[in-house]
Design a protein that fits this description.
0% strand; 4 helices
């Protein structure tokens, strides 16, 4: 029996190569719902729904102390600058709440 991650990647590559739909089993969905994968998918969903660029986190060893608290201007990008660690449940809830609110606003604007 093939390991779930290996089987899922094989199916993803095959669907991309053949231009066909992707069919996943329950065990593959469980892999997608793991904190690190799910967090990434939520970021992409939020990016699509808001039309904004999602800020990429910088490497942990990159020090930019001169930027901390240096300005009061708002930026056009969104992202989490402080607070929960990436992949945490609090972050997922925050991303989903913003995505849901944006979807509702977009739906109202169309009507």
């Amino acid at each position: 029996m093939t390991a779930p991650a290996t089987e899922m990647m094989s199916r993803i590559k095959r669907a991309k190569r053949n231009g066909t739909k992707l069919h996943l089993d329950h065990e593959h969905v469980d892999l997608l719902l793991q904190d690190d994968v799910y967090s990434l998918l939520c970021r992409y969903e939020l990016k699509e729904m808001t039309g904004c660029a999602v800020e990429q986190k910088e490497p942990a060893n990159d020090s930019k102390s001169a930027d901390i608290g240096s300005g009061t201007e708002k930026t056009a990008t969104i992202g989490i600058s402080a607070g929960p660690k990436e992949g945490s449940r609090a972050e997922r809830r925050q991303v989903l709440a913003v995505a849901s609110q944006t979807a509702r606003q977009n739906k109202r604007a169309k009507h």
